[in-house]
Amino acid sequence: MKLVTVIVLLVISIYTFGFAVSLWKEKQKFGSAAVFFLTLAILILPLFSIF
Predict the structure, then answer these.
(1) Tens-place pLDDT, residues 7-48
(2) Please, what is the end-to-end C-alpha distance for the chain in angstroms?
(3) pTM higher than 0.85, yes or no?
(4) Number of structural domains the chain divides into
(5) Domain range spanning residue 34?
């Protein structure tokens, strides 16, 4: 079950990181930074409850 959770988190974070990159290319650097930190939160916070 942990493996499924990690895979789902990775898929969501890759999609979110791609959105941050597209915002960066559109010269919306503040929004891109916010989405990037959201991606970090998606990856880090659930790992505390799993492990």
Answers:
(1) 888 898 889 888 899 989 998 899 999 999 988 888 888 778
(2) 12
(3) no
(4) 1
(5) 2-50
- Which residues contact residue 36 at a Cβ distance below 8 angstroms, ignoring those fewer than 6 apart? 17, 20
Closest CA to 19 of 2, 42, 1: 42
DSSP 1-51: -HHHHHHHHHHHHHHHHHHHHHHHHTT-HHHHHHHHHHHHHHHHHHHHHH-
- For residue 43, give both structure tokens: 């990856």
Query: Distance between CA atoms of 1 and 15, rounded to whole angstroms?
Result: 22
